[in-house]
Every structure is written in structure tokens, then in C-alpha cells.
Design brief:
The complex is a heterodimer. Chain A is about 75% helix and about 0% strand. Chain A contains 9 helices and no strands. The radius of gyration of chain A is 18 Å and the shape is globular. Helix content of chain B is about 65%, strand content about 0%. Chain B has a two-stranded antiparallel sheet. In chain B, strand 1 and strand 2 form a beta hairpin. Classes of the chains: A mainly alpha, B mainly alpha. The interface between A and B is large, with 57 and 61 residues.
Chain lengths: ~190, ~260
Amino acid sequence: MQELLLIAVGAALVNNVTLSQFLGICPFLGVSKKVETATSMGLAVLFVITLASFICSLIYDHILVPMGIEYLQTIVFILVIAGLVQFVEMFLKKSMPGLYTALGVYLPLITTNCAVLGAALTNVQEGYGLVESVINGVGISCGFLLAISLMAGVREKIAENEGIPKSFQGSPIVLVTAGLMAIAFCGFSGLI
Amino acid sequence: MKNKYFERIYNGIIKENPTFVIMLGMCPTLATTTSAINGFGMGIATTAVLIFSNLLIAALRNIIPEKVRIPAYIVVIASLVTIVELLMQAYVRPLYNTLGIYIPLIVVNCIIMGRAEAYAAKHSALLSACDGIGMGLGFTCALTIIGFCRELVGAGSVFGYQIIPDDFHVGIFVMAPGAFLVLACLTALQNKLKAPSATNLSKAEKAKKKLAGEPAGCTGECGSCMLHAEEIVDKKIELKKADCPKTEAAAKEGGNR
């Protein structure tokens, strides 16, 4: 139990997926102008990463390893993720239209979010079992949700470009903000 | 004839530099540039994948059906990445170990998908391969420059040779925050010099590009580019809103039956 908690906290805070592993930087910078959209994106990612960690871990342990074709993991994982995203989208559309309207637009964008593939690959690399993989996935995506929501909060405040030097307006100031957030997250490194 | 191919390469390195001008593929850019040599290695690996994926996709462009093109591209790219990964594991072990998880993650690098969709799907195989060379070299140069800056300030060395004594290192630059800060400074410099970049395009130019049906790099399939993601999401939300009454009506109809 304690071990699982350590995995989750480690994935969410200490090795924050965006701010110290640099995965999912693109949505982190691209879809973080409003807190509302950023949070929806984060929730969609949470949903997909958790499912993807579960399925990829199952496939790796029960199909790839017994057949001795571990080297195909990248191809298999990316196809599983792409298929999964499509499937989740169709499923939500049919059975949970409310959730679909909230998350739907973000789902197709997640296929190539590197955090998803990154989570699946980390699980394999660390040799996590099924439960550990899912916990790690949840931790990783909570970290992403936290980072992207915080980022959107800051960006809403600096949207007017007040007091920002002209050459730093636009993407440079966003990158500086991300840098400062990354410094803050470095503070978690002593946690475990 | 030759000029056309050369023009593609020049275009990739300078005019449409994937990192500095169209800002694609940010994850490896930030993650693997702890030193110049790491950035260079990552750039070369990506270049190899990019050249062959462009070549193959352009060669197959008339065979792949329109509807399943994205999964087809993903399979081609993922196979190439696996090949590169295995080759690196066999021949450049130290680099393979430092780059680690970021090598398989070349699959989701949006430069590759973006070029496949925006260029290789419409042009001949040779031209596309040249485009791949150009874009790849542009990416490699950018990564090497960023890596060079971070290594110089953070570890006081150039390509592994130490030139600044230990006491003057700013360690944070080789850590995660340094990546953001260095890139921020480089883009700010670009803004200052009014160099062409994603943020410096005037509105007229952007409109022209849109009219020409030429996305500034990727098509948003990956949902990754800083420029388009927000717009695309907004557009899709509008579309969804327009769709909603229809689906509701359809649901009602279904219920009545």
C-alpha cells in the first residue's frame, strides 16, 4: 500500500510529467489560455492515460512477453492508444453525452500527446505490474492536470501583457512562466 | 531541377525551421538538450526517421486510402522509429542510455506527422525526402544550439570539453527549468530581431497562409502546436454546439421509437 502511494506521489509531484519530464509540453503550452479549457483537457488526459496504462500493461504482460516480441512495444502501444481514443470517443458519444460534450473535443487531440505513450513506456521500463501501472498512470495524469490548471491560472493573469517587455510578449513569457513553475516543482524533489 | 531540391533543404533549415519558426516538437527540444551532443544525437535520430517516413509516405500516397491515412502514417512512423531505436541500442549505447524514453517518443513528435500530412502526402517521393532532410537538419541545428547554450552556462563546457571553472556554473540550466528559460530567451531574441517566427507573423501573412490552405507547419491532427490548438478547439466547440440540437433531436427520435 505504502509502495503504491509512493509511486503515485512520485509520479504526480516529484517527477512531474510536464515540468520535469517534458512530456505533454505541447498541450501544456497550447491549450492553457483559459482555466476552464485547461481543466477539461487535463481531465480528458486523466481518463485516457488511466485506461491506456491498464490496457497497455495487460497487452505487454500477456501478449508481447509470452510471444517474445517486446521490441514491437512502440508500434503496439501507439496503435492501442489511437484505437482506444477513438473507441472512448464513440462510447462517450453513445452513452454519456454530457461527458462527451465536456471532454469530446479534446479526445482526438490526445492521441499524439506524448504523455500517454510516455506513461505506457515508463510502466514497462520500470517493470510495473498491472495495479502499479494504473496507479502510476493516475499519478502522472494528476500531475499533468495540476500543472496545466496552474499554468492556465497564471496565463489568465498575464493575458493583458501589462509590464512585460515587448520582445517577451507572446510565447517567451509563457516559457518563462513554465520555467519558474519548474523551479517551484524542483522543491518537491526532497519529498521521497 | 537541382534547385528545386536544394530549395526544400534551405526552406527546412532557415525559412521554416521547425523549432524556431513554426515551433513544433517542443517535447524533445526541451527534454534532450541538456548538452550539445545529446541535442545533436536526438536531432540526427529524428532526421533519419523524418527522411524515410517522408519518402515512404510520399511513395505510398496513392495507395493509402484517404480515410485511414492517419493510422497508416502512424504505423509507418512507428516501424521506422523501432528500427532507429534498435540500431541505436546496438551501435551508440551511451547515447541510447541518456536519451532513454525519448527515442520511442519520436513517434509522437508532431514535426514528423505534420510533414507527412502537410507535404509528403501531396508531393513526389524525392522532393519529400529532400523536405525531410531540410526539416531534419533544421531541427538538429536548433537542438544543437539550445543544447550548446545550456551546456555552456550550466556545465561550463562545449561538446564535453570544460572551459569554465566549476565555481562559475549555473547548475539550474542543465536541470528542467533551464530548458524553458533558455528557449524563452532565444524566442525573445528572435522577437527583438524581428526574425520571422510563429509569434512574429503579421495578421495579413497569417490570413494569406490560411487562404493558401497551407497550415504553418502541422494540421493540428496532433493537437500539439501552440498556434493552432486553441483555435482548433474553439472551432470544434462551435461545431459541436451547432451539432448539439441535431443529436438531441436524434436522441429524442430514437426514444420515441
